[in-house]
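Appendix C: a fully annotated inverse folding record. The material below is reproduced so that readers can follow the format used throughout the book. The structure is listed first as tokens, followed by the designed sequence.
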């Protein structure tokens, strides 16, 4: 539904999954189509509201016809139209086909992808950034983005060929945090230059790390946490960029931790000084 720039959105009711608009939205399941259209799909009223509140561009709002009398949905639809987004109203079965869920939420949205410009990243002295090398699992990436939000990380950098942060699985796993955490992408060469200019510590997790992850003085920032991928860990060229290689001690039979868990441990340790224990929490 093309229209002049700045014009309000339009409302359209669609009854069939064979409709060309619905077909285009369903194609967002594919990474290539997300890249070609610079768009992705998010589900749930809270996520769509979070996206709008954080300045993300909503292109299309989709809601179930059964929710047309829901006051909250009506207000969101009016807000979407005022922002220039189109609103399409579909039967629940069509919404289920769009989201590939048997019991879909009553609202979904097509949004414009957004990445931070690597050239404009300027870490402050108290910042903690997370860099992920070739992360493969959408659930891991989504969980890390959610953890970065909760733990107060300044952003996440994706190094090399990674899973798409805007895949439906990743967006679901972030629980809305994708709209609050800056994401940047870099190939290995560009990241090497970025790391070479980093003004603080670069702490990497490594099986051969000689320092317990709780030992570094993380208050001497900014901190860049560098995490290897799920299968191979941190490769030698990236390990060489680190000022400190740390390890997370283990006592059981497992030979490694899940990437999202390891990242959470390191982030919260690096940010420990930002979460003082109040007197009330000690009782």
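Designed amino acids, in order:
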């Amino acid at each position: 539904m093309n229209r002049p720039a700045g014009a309000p959105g339009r409302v359209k009711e669609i009854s069939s999954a064979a409709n060309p608009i619905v077909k285009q939205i369903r194609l967002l399941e594919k990474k290539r189509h997300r890249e070609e259209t610079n768009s992705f799909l998010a589900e749930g009223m809270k996520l769509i509201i979070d996206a709008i509140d954080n300045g993300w561009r909503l292109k299309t709002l989709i809601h179930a016809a059964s929710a047309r009398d829901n006051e909250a949905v009506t207000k969101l639809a009016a807000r979407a139209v005022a922002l220039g987004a189109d609103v399409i109203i579909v039967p629940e079965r069509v919404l289920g086909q769009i989201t590939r869920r048997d019991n879909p939420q009553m609202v979904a949205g097509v949004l414009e992808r957004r990445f931070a410009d690597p050239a404009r990243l300027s870490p402050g002295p108290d910042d903690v950034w997370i860099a992920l090398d070739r992360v493969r699992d959408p659930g891991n990436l989504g969980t890390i983005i959610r953890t970065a939000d909760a733990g107060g990380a300044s952003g996440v950098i994706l190094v090399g060929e990674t899973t798409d942060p805007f895949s439906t699985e990743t967006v679901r796993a972030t629980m809305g945090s994708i709209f609050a955490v800056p994401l940047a992408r870099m190939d290995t060469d560009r990241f090497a230059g970025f790391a070479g200019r980093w003004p603080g510590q670069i702490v990497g997790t490594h099986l051969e790390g000689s320092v317990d992850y709780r030992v570094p003085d993380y208050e001497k920032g900014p901190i860049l946490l560098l995490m290897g991928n799920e299968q191979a860990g941190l490769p030698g060229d990236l390990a060489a960029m680190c000022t400190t290689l740390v390890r997370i001690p283990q006592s059981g039979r497992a030979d490694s931790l899940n990437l999202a868990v390891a990242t959470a441990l390191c982030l919260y340790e690096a940010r420990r000084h930002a979460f003082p224990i109040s007197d009330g929490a000690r009782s």
